[in-house]
Every structure is written in C-alpha cells, then in structure tokens.
From TrEMBL:
Source organism: marine sediment metagenome
Single Gene Ontology MF annotation: ATP binding
SMART domains to which the protein is assigned, alphabetical: AAA
Entry keyword Amino-acid biosynthesis: no
Keyword Lipoprotein: no
Name the UniProt record assigns to this protein: ABC transporter domain-containing protein
Key words of the record: ATP-binding, Nucleotide-binding, Transport
Pfam families hit by this protein: ABC_tran
Signal peptide segment: none
Amino acid sequence: MNDPIIVINGLNKTYEGGFQALTHIDLTIQRGEIFALLGPNGAGKTTLISVVCGLVNPTAGHVLVDGFDNITHYRQARERIGLVPQELTNEAFETVWNTVSFSRGLFGKAPNPAHIEKVLKSLTLWDKRHNRLMTLSGGMKRRVLIAKALSHEPRVLFLDEPTAGVDVELRREMWEVVRQLRDNGVTIILTTHYIEEAEEMADRIGVINRGELVLVEEKAALMSKLGSKQLTLNLHTALAGLPNSLQRFDLSLAAEGYELVYTYDGSQDEDGHGISALLTALEQEGITFKDLHTRQSSLEDIFVDLVNPKERA
C-alpha cells in the first residue's frame, strides 16, 4: 500500500482567542486502509477531521484528497469524502430511502436507485427503506448516517466516534460493517477513544494528544515496539532478594518472594537479556520454578504511556 489518498502537510489550527487545536500535523493515509485516530476527548480528533473535510479552515498547512487540494479544489476533494458525524442528526419524519437519496443529490450526483439499493442492503437497511427515521432504533439510525455518507460514492469515509454510546453487541456489528466497506474499496478513517476499537480494526494507528500527532505506526509494529511483556515465574522456594548474577535483567519479586516477575520486549532476546538467557541464569543459580505465565501489554497500556506516562510511573 504505497498509494496515498490523503496527504496532510504542516496543518495548524488556532481559534480566535488563541486556542491552538492542531499543531503542525503531517499525515499520509494510504488508499484502502483502516486508519484509527486515537486520543482522549478534546485531543483534536474532530477538529482534524473537520479541516480535512473542508468544514473548518486551517490556520496553516494544506490537505490533498485524492490529489485535489481541499481549499483550491474544494468540490472535487469534498465529493471524494463521506463523513459520518458523532451526532444522530436525522430528519425524523423522512423515510430511509428518501433521506439517503437526498444526500446523494446534495453532491450533484444524478439519481442512481441501484447504488442506493446496494448501500442499504450492505448496511442491512433494505427492509427498513420505507420506514420513517423516527421509528428506527439508535443502531439503525447510525447505519442510516453511514448510508447517507456513502450515497455519493465517496472514496474515503470518515467515521467520527462511530460507536460512541452504543452497546457492545452493536459496536461489534458496526465493526463488521466497517470491514465490509474496506473490502469494497473504501478507505476508512475513524476517530475513537475506545482502545478496543482501534486494536480490533485498524491497520495503522495515530495517537493525537493536545493537538499534536504523537505517533503514527502500524498496529502490529506499535504493539511489538512499545508493548512490554511480563513473564511471571512461580518459584518452589521464596527468594529474599535477587542474586547479583540476575541484576542485568528487569526483575522484581512478588508474592513474598515466591514470584519472580520479568518485564521485557522482543529486542532483548538479541542482546543476551531475553527469556532464554534468564532461564539459563536461573538454572546456574539453582533457582527452580513450578509454573510460569506471560502477559503482553494491551494497546490501552501503550496509549496511557504515550499520552500520560506519569500515570504508569
């Protein structure tokens, strides 16, 4: 995937009064990926989406959408974008079919009932097409928002907190919808503060905090690079302290000396500080264990470290 569909360079946004919502954002989104923008509330996620979609003007920098500058070629850039906002703002008395078809017309697209049918079926809304929006459940209304965003055949879909306020079962249903959209060739950018959402779905993850893009990384590489692991050994005999020969390892004692906890990452295997080296050192010291188990950092652990490292100190 070396074909960028969105290129953001030097983006800044300062509001009247001096509040700087975005600080020098550089970001490239590859065609066909699911990119999760992760950050706490107020970090700048929605502002960044709003700038890319042309709803908010930047103070500095520029954005290209499929090669079109989103200010100088606003119409061409905007028609390539579908936006699903956080708020459920639907026309309560309108039918599903009419509201989705109307959204297509807003982009100057000719009527295409076959496309609207395809979108509604892909979102399990076809049986509800004649229903008024006021009669739908919250989950169905959120699907209608996605259908509206897809009505004009965009190449990029922004989902701003797509599962905020919905239950776990519906959240998983929405994840499946997003995967299907990606499989159909739509590039997905989602903002979320649900760690599990990014961990479950994203190909790459960006972490934004206080308007700055702290990190952008492939999910697997991020977890491998920053995600520490713990090996806990349940010892036969309690240790009062650590022998000198074990000082080179990141070890701690727990459970009154009956547990030896080793914190490590994959790179340590290469420099003589890995698990195999530890087990050899334990054998040489005559320290035996009856059981062991491992734990790997979740994305939530990594996120807390990045956004507020003092919390975990």
